[in-house]
Amino acid sequence: MDLERVILSAKQKALRINLNQDIYGTFAEVGAGQEVVRHFFRAGGASGTIAKAISAYDKDFSDAIYGKEKKDRYVCKHRLEKMLKHEYQLIEERINRENHPSKQFFAFANTVATINFHKSSQGHGWFGLKFQTEPGKEASEVILHARLHESDALQQQISTGILGTNLIYGCYFFYKNPKELLKSLYDNLDRSQIEIDMIHMNGPDFTNVDNRLLSLQLVKNGMTDAVIFSPDGRNLQAADILYKKNILAIRGSFRPVTKVNIDMIAKGLKKFKEEPKVDPENIQVLFEITLNNLKAQGDIDEQDFLDRADILCSIGQTVLISNYKKYYKLVEFFSRHSKKRMGVIMGASTLVEIFDEKYYRNLNGGILEAFGILFSRDLKILLYPWKDSKTGTLWNSKTTPIHPRLKPLYNYLTFNKKIIDIEDYDEEVLSIFSTEAFKMIKNGDKNWENMVPTFVDQIIKEKCLFGYCGVKPNTNHSEDPAEAAAKAIEQGNSN
After folding, report:
1. Candidates 3.90.228.20, 1.10.10.10, 3.40.190.10, 3.90.950.20; correct CATH number of 10-209?
2. Is 241 helix (H, G, I), strand (E, B) or coil?
3. 127 has which bridge partners?
4. What is the pTM of this model?
């Protein structure tokens, strides 16, 4: 039985690092005071750990050291990366390795903006550590973004100091266990103070780390409610990818991606581009998987999650993992980053659930409060039809069965074109469901191949996803899945 990890205070962590004569490096902090290095100075024994501490507050002075930033954004990932690279390079150049053969170098950096005087902007910051775990070894790196939730700048500074100290300690003492490293970042902190919404680990000490799993852990552990990763598996910060974009999201299990999923996104994207307030060159498409969906079969199966992620990444899609079971929460998240027109593609059967009042019992204003959040934003619901297998009735905006008590509200939304139909759908794919395709793959029933696009079929077989154990295809002449998917979506071809 594993013993529970003893949580040390920030001072205890700083002291333990200071007493290790082999850990040696620099601190570069911008924007919230020298809050991290302060813990190391106060703990005692800092002369053996701190080579330099710098705080380049003046922009001109900072630019002279690290270079200018585009659009004068100083609290950004690019700035942090330049700070880490510059400071780590300096310590390697200036510290004679012959005189210090056992030193493990590090460079810590952060760039933080605390809440302003008028409390009109929320505090946030980037934190990073570039570090060695053995003398002369190539450095590894951990970078994270945190949102500061406290309403007082001084409290945010204190939390910044604790988080930075936790990061340095975790990198040196938990680097062999990335999940433990992640959890340790919240030692002596909680979600009401700090929300970590992006983390990325790379380098020789993290060669076996899949950063998509780290994203999943952030949501699973309650450290944030939503994370995004790119087709190449890089974790992204929402503000960077969604800022001032026309956001188009589709929610699903994608277990696996089927022809109907591709038809929904292809036809939904085409419809969205026709909207007058949508710039076709400024659209960010997101494939969303909810934590609730991942837990549908019990606890989260990480391999199952990676199988879904592998397909979506392989076909060139950006993935959102969220804890937003209700759509109004998702739209609220989007509206933090963009005020432009956004769209959500959903099936008619899902729309019925949205109009079920029982899902809003936790709100004082019930369904009206939720819909106030949903539709006070510039949102369009792009409705994909659903065929009732029992009656053969096709559900669209005119035929979807809404409770009579809510019908006036529904009519108001359809009349004002807040809910619009996707009309050029492929009727042949309406009877395809991911759950059936998944069962067929598990059972070795080859009929699943007819339910997914060719490029998805190819990925599942090549990577043996979802328990596939059949013959792998000859890939010498196969079209790149991402290019094939892009072509299918652009042409509206679900095959």
Report:
1. 3.90.950.20
2. helix
3. 110, 144
4. 0.92
